[in-house]
From TrEMBL:
GO terms for cellular component: cytoplasm. Belongs to the citrate synthase family. Pfam families: Citrate_synt (PF00285). The gene is gltA. Keywords: Transferase, Tricarboxylic acid cycle. The active site is at 271, 328. One of its GO terms (biological process) is tricarboxylic acid cycle. PANTHER family: CITRATE SYNTHASE. This is Citrate synthase.
Amino acid sequence: ETGMITIDPGFKNTGSCESAITFLDGEKGILRYRGYSIEELAEKADFLEVAYLLIFGELPNQEELHKFHNDIKGESHVDEEMKKILDGFPKSAHPMGVLTSLTSALIAFNPSSVNVTSEKEMYWAIVRILAKFPVLVSWTLRKKKGLPLDYGDDTLGYVENIHKMMFKRPNHKYEKNKVVIDALDKLLILHADHEQNCSTSTVRMVGSSHAGLFASLSAGIAALWGPLHGGANQAVLEMLEAIEADGGDTKKYMSKAKDKNDPFRLMGFGHRVYKNFDPRAKIIKKAADEVLGDLGVEDPILDIAKGLEKEALSDKYFVDRKLYPNVDFYSGIIYRALGIPTEMFTVMFALGRLPGWIAQWREMRLKNEPIGRPRQVYIGHASREFVAVDKR
Ligand code: SDX
């Protein structure tokens, strides 16, 4: 007999592992990657540096960073056959569904990345997916827009190349825009890891069966897609656009959000761990003002978002439940200003979260964690005899 099994829905009070990667303090609104504050990293580091820090545990020196980037550049080829899989999707396919499929399809073209056991094999599987995933992201976007697919330009920085792959037009020179590249870099850093959230726990769970890194990441992308998780950034913009279409009537949506019988939630608000401001939301809100200002974009949606936040923070329902804006509340406003279509927002979240998923998968594998297999409390029928179909 296994003794008392306690059920903990959503694992609200269950620790699944020990980890040295990311530290959150939900009460104080603190977030650190390997001990470095998110505020410092967002200001002073770049995304590839942060990816290295999360995965290998230390900030890289010049030589380490240069080698890491070179190794990634060398692996940025995606087999042309993969385009046939992409061609199989209708233009209406949601990019997150396309990317879960393309990420697992990548396994077939990179067999050496499947049964990795040594650190060296893990390193190359990690380099391959960091190199190829941005290509898949850009192909998914460009396919939807009917643009030619492309591998980008490896003379550029990692994030600059991502932006170029996504937005380069065939008929005019790619405009390098520092404001846009820096905003993208900062957003990717802010999404890079967040300890045992739903999608990361999924990556660890699938990885614990030794299904391989790419399969684990494909599962993580699927989990992130949900509107309660990474899909919230798309849902926030759809909510703000609905409020705008409703003449900016935030009160109506606030009462819907508080109505127990109405499934509508104030998307981009609330968090399982943060019972204070999500530190990422503070940085993104400030960046939204800066980026829209620098780009000369006047977006009434930003004012609606700020109005909604102000109302919610002085509303008893939200204050009592300690519901604050989370990472998804303002991020979509910047993505929109950068010309990223709404249904690609969660893909941008996945692109940012990739290093975190990888770091958590690597930590789990290097520690030889046991396969994840929770117990249950059985509440079904007691034993009963089979009845032939003509007797039922
Ligand atoms: C991310 O885990 C992570 O770290 C995730 C993430 C990451 O970086 O990986 O931070 C990214 O997923 C951010 C969250 C994005 N999701 C949304 O913005 C969707 C809206 N938020 C909610 O669905 C909700 O707040 C969750 C899912 C984020 C958290 O849900 P919990 O912890 O399970 O809390 P709960 O559903 O039990 O809510 C507690 C109470 C309930 O009311 P009561 O039953 O107590 O009366 O607060 C209410 C909820 O109804 N509530 C909300 C609300 N969020 C919670 N009511 C209205 N609007 C909301 N947004």
